[in-house]
Request: fold
Amino acid sequence: MSYNQPPPAQPTFIGPPAGQPGGKPKWARKRVAIPAFCLIFFVGVGIGSSGSNGDQEKTSSSAKPQPTVTVTETAAAKPAKDDAKPAKDEKPAPGKDDEKATVPNFVGMGLQSAQDKAQEVGFSELTSHDALGRDRMQAFDRNWKVCSQSVEAGTSTSTDTDLDFGAVKLEEGCPAKDEKPPSAEGGKMPDFTGKSVKAARGALDSGASITVNDASAEDRMVLMESNWKVCSQTPAAGTSLNGQPVELTAVKFEESCQ
Reply:
């Protein structure tokens, strides 16, 4: 038995008909299939982008700011080529050895005044000695007068030249020539007659054994040897000195030897 059955009913689309507001055209009703690999690609790109941005934000947030160091290169100073070389027209400053002065005439002046004058001119190397050869010390220069000078007056010489003044006490007369102290050069006994006991002692070796006796009958002690003059000596003048003892007799300078 056959039945004529009607065709199955089509599903009814509920919505506004095509062409009305809110309706979709027929082509929009069709579903478009997107391949699976495309979906995987887009998802992967999205995850990568979000992870990269997250790492960047994490790194930037956790990184501490570093101080900025600026290095400036300084050129090394170069010495001037001509610093160590004096200019052609530049002359070295004169030293003391190059300074000169004219020596004044000091004879007849008091020893202290002569020394002051010498220093005013520029001389500073000053010495003095007993012009009578008695080897007395000029303890108070004002009590002495100049009889001679080692550099002749009017001489132009360096200001560091030694100036030596021969002097005697104010009440004494100047000798015609400076009496030089005796000397035992050559190992020979000098002639001490008329010389001061002090000068005789100074001429002999410091270790020499010397005995000094009063030549008068008074048997006085010889204390200030520069005020005593030698009358006799043993050994005699010209004898070779080999360390033997020396004996002297003496009287004061104002006295006569007996």
Summary: Helices lie at 36-62, 111-121, 197-203. The CA atoms of residues 51 and 92 lie 83 Å apart. The beta strands are 100-102, 126-130, 144-149, 156-158, 163-169, 210-214, 228-234, 246-252. Residues 54-61 have pLDDT under 50 and may be disordered.
